Amino acid sequence: MTTLERASRWARDCEQNHPHCALTPSVLPTRLVAIDDDVTSREARIVETKTEPAGRYIALSHCWGTHRLPARVTKKGLETSNIVSLDDMTRSFEDAIAITRYLGLRHIWIDSLCILQDDPEDWDRELATMHAVYSNAVLTISVTGAEDGTLGCFAGRKLKKYVPIPYSDSKSGLDGQVYAFALPAALEARPDKYIEMSSEPLSGRAWCFQERVLSRRVLHFATDQMYFECNAGIQSEDGLHLKNRFFTLHGDPRSGFLPVPGGSTSDTNMQLWYNILWSYGPRKLTKSSDKLPAFAGVAAVFAERLQDQYLAGIWRKSMIEGLLWQALDVAEVKDRKPSWSWVSIDGIPASGLIGRWEQLAFIIDCQVDRVGESRFGEVKSGSIKMEAPLLPLILVESVRSSDDRETGLPLKQKHLFFRTPQGLRTPGQVDPRTPGGVDAKSTGRFDSIGQRHEEAETLAREGKVFALVLAVDVGDTSHKLMIYHSLLVTPVAARGDGTTLKRLGFVNLEIESLGVDEVRTSRTTVTLE
Asked: Where is this region: Disordered (predicted)?
């Protein structure tokens, strides 16, 4: 059986036998690439679906890479001709068109051919419907193993090494040889690694993340073999068949998350949102300004489910919880606004409060200045006006003695702590250089500094740092372990008013390092930018 014969069988079996994968006919994309029946044809047409009904279609997920795509449709060019030559297309485009034709379909959606590349308004309109493009495709062809369009769907696949093993069956009298190949031990030990496909070039790209999450069925052309992914699980050419799949938004009961015990549908949706956001955060972008646009399709689906307002990546109804993200594995980034949104970092925005908590901050107003019309797209800036406890933090230095783990020799370690003036003189650790420490009473870190110790210490010593307290844990009825969830903030110097702040990081303060009376009674009206 050839690779494409297997792909056709997988797709046909899914359509006929998987009720969870069923696709209800709906609105078509604005444009599609129409493919000729003639396999020798070297041309394709760009068609407007409102004037030329197209029926079912396939979508393509690929990485542009650093090369400028030769085949790009522009508004001016489309006015002259809707014909595109395959000779001007990348290898990935050619392969995808050939696969589409083999599977019996005659239309495919390809971003650079179906979005006008010289028309910002068209780009903005198409961005708003990206979720529908991939959700309504019969299948998404994913060039998962290619870092750019020059490689195509089948490049670089290594042949497996087969070993002959003799066998003998005494009952039937048959004997001979079977051929076996070794499976990757790291993947077999953790089957979820097959699902993540983390070593594949496309898996590290931000735009391709939402294309996979939004698709009902995905045909992956990876570096080792072909995989088929749907709500029934993942299959591969070498016989792998897992019952789980990657994150999906199409109602699969095995979609990688569990309902919140005793929680509402909204609770479950928010849990899925935070899980998806965790996975999306560190993925790479060629243009850093695409952080929100590359996630717009996912956001559009959740906006419908949550019936909520989307503000630069944060949901209005759960804004307090949404603001308390913690930056993990962060790469150095320039000043990206707004500081209060996870869009300001390149890394994992660990979100979601665990357990019971009480809100201590109250939102007065939220404003977002968008670049285009899409409420899910790029933003210029944003501000949140709120009333909350705002407590100055002072820096305390401490030296601890311990034994070096490797040499066993005495070792002195310097630690820096933040506490309020009303806090105890021996507070718990809030170390801007590490994510926390042994016997830590409090934990925190600066968002964009990570493990750059000297830079963190300079900022802590020279900057005016405050704790903007947003919530407190109330699960512990004895109140001995109450954690005050706060943002590390500093005044925006250009404003000069002392109450316009920007986020520096997060800090979770225990009761010993906080003035309890003050945090319960003090309220300051501030604007977070």
From this structure: 424-443
Q: With contact defined as beta carbons under 8 Å apart, do 129 and 111 qualify?
A: no
Residues 264 and 233 in one domain: no
Which spans in 143-242 are helix H?
185-189, 192-196, 206-214
Q: Within this chain, do residues 223 and 330 fall inside the same structural domain, yes or no? A: no
What kind and span of H or E run contains 121?
Answer: helix 120-128
Q: What pTM was computed for the model?
A: 0.85
Element (H, E) at 292: none
Is there a domain that residue 145 lies in?
yes
| Domain co-membership, 285 together with 229 | no
3-state secondary structure labels for all residues of 297-322: HHHHHHHHHHCCCEECCEEHHHHHHH
Q: Can you tell me the distance from the alpha carbon of 365 to that of 162, in angstroms, rounded to the nearest whole number? A: 65
- DSSP annotation string for 336-379: -S-TTSGGG-EEEEE----S-EEE--EEEEEEEEESSS-TTS-E
- For the chain, the C-alpha Rg in angstroms (whole number) is 27
Q: Which of 34, 45, 53 is nearest to 101 (CA)?
A: 34
In a domain, 67, yes or no: yes
How do beta strands 107-109 and 163-169 pair? unpaired
Cβ within 8 Å of residue 151, ≥6 positions away? 91, 92, 143, 145
Task: Identify the H or E element spanning 528.
Answer: strand 524-528
Count of CB atoms situated within 10 Å of the CB of 513: 25
Q: What is the pLDDT of residues 244-303, one digit of tens each?
A: 999 988 864 444 444 444 445 567 889 899 999 999 999 999 898 999 999 999 999 999
**3 state SS of 428:** coil
Phi-psi region of 286 (alpha: psi -120 to 50; beta: other; left: phi over 0): alpha
User: Is residue 421 included in any domain, yes or no?
Assistant: yes
203 and 284 share one domain: no
Backbone angles phi, psi at 202, to 5 degrees: -70, -25
If asked whether residues 271 and 372 sit together in one domain, one would say yes
pLDDT of residue 219: 99
> 38-96, pLDDT tens digit by residue?
999 999 999 999 888 778 999 999 998 877 666 778 888 888 889 999 999 999 999 99
Contact status, residue 99 vs residue 180, Cβ threshold 8 Å? no
Identify whether 338 is preceded by a cis peptide bond (ω within 30 of 0).
yes
Residue type, 212: R
Q: What is the mean pLDDT of residues 201-209?
A: 96
Indicate if 235 and 262 belong to the same structural domain.
no
Q: Which residues span the domain enclosing 15?
A: 3-156+190-242
Number of structural domains found in the chain: 2
